[in-house]
Amino acid sequence: xxxxxxxxxxxxxxxxxxxxxxxxxxxxxxxxxxxxxxxxxxxxxxxxxxxxxxxxxxxxxxxxxxxxxxxxxxxxxxxxxxxxxxxxxxxxxxxxxxxxxxxxxxxxxxxxxxxxxxxxxxxxxxxxxxxxxxxxxxxxxxxxxxxxxxxxxxxxxxxxxxxxxxxxxxxxxxxxxxxxxxxxxxxxxxxxxxxxxxxxxxxxxxxxxxxxxxxxxxxxxxxxxxxxxxxxxxxxxxxxxxxxxxxxxxxxxxxxxxxxxxxxxxxxxxxxxxxxxxxxxxxxxxxxxxxxxxxxxxxxxxxxxxxxxxxxxxxxxxxxxxxxxxxxxxxxxxxxxxxxxxxxxxxxxxxxxxxxxxxxxx
Length: 362
Ligand code: 5AD
Ligand code: FES
Known about the structure:
CATH topology: TIM Barrel
Distance between the termini: 43 Å
Largest sheet: 7 strands, parallel
Number of helices: 15
CATH superfamily: Aldolase class I
Structural class: alpha/beta
Radius of gyration: 19 Å
Number of strands: 10
Shape: globular
Order of helices and strands: HHHEEHEHEHEHHEHEHEHHEHHEH
Bound molecules: 5'-deoxyadenosine, FE2/S2 (inorganic) cluster
CATH class: Alpha Beta
């Protein structure tokens, strides 16, 4: 175990072994991952103020509570003024960066609206607010348009890097195409976005080998950011039928923590999110993720009236909290685990910054 925890280039069998650790070995893994994080990234935590722009969605992912066919959901789209207010609030709270997330839409009215909002947020913040987008699969042209408008980070989880598993958790049709999702990630990387991807942990049919392959996929793609959270069955979705076949809450959270820890050993300089879903399974879930290698938190800025309509999974944490309450709550929570929130900063991934820094040649 000691040897594995200090090994330079982990192979698949090493990763499977680490992900299978329990008890004392799991604690050793967590301790080593924290040590590596502190060495590379210090005890700093970056914030992204999350704006859940719209829950209208053309997709039907089999796990997601706001999937298009779920007619129990009250659909909304924030007005321009609501979005800009969120951005102003992010500035006031000194979050250096925001993330705009939405159900997937690809019509021109939507994509142009996003371009306009990104430009406007850049203008009102004097270029100071970093903007991350998480708006699903789009054409390269649209990704370029948004990048040129001022977005510099993009999150598109692959959800499951094993194609067979991907099609067990998505309908197999032209709206849910594994190869297209892969090529979207490639486009984002090519265009120069700090690109993030990720998976859900504890899905039905998912094996520890699948999870090891997910981590190898992140390394192969050389992404700047990763978001991984436990799968939480939602009763108005088809995958709920398998809710009794997945590992327990505790096991899914522990596996998520092990995924974060092992990835921190593999890619010490990337940004990794402590997902809100961690906190749904355990009141200390996000703190636990930070203590095993995560370094980003996404406090919610969505107007409280709309949050309950964005229940991707049930019992989402902080749904009733006002943004300013979230801020002081997070400050206290991070101090309690000897971490410090970095305000007024974009909080770029060190992995990305280094790769794109001008090289000195003589
Ligand atoms: N449980 C956990 N995470 C989920 N997501 C969607 N549905 C669920 C669920 N039931 C995640 C997906 C998506 C992100 C927005 O939320 O990974 O990319
Ligand atoms: Fe695909 Fe919500 S419908 S993640």
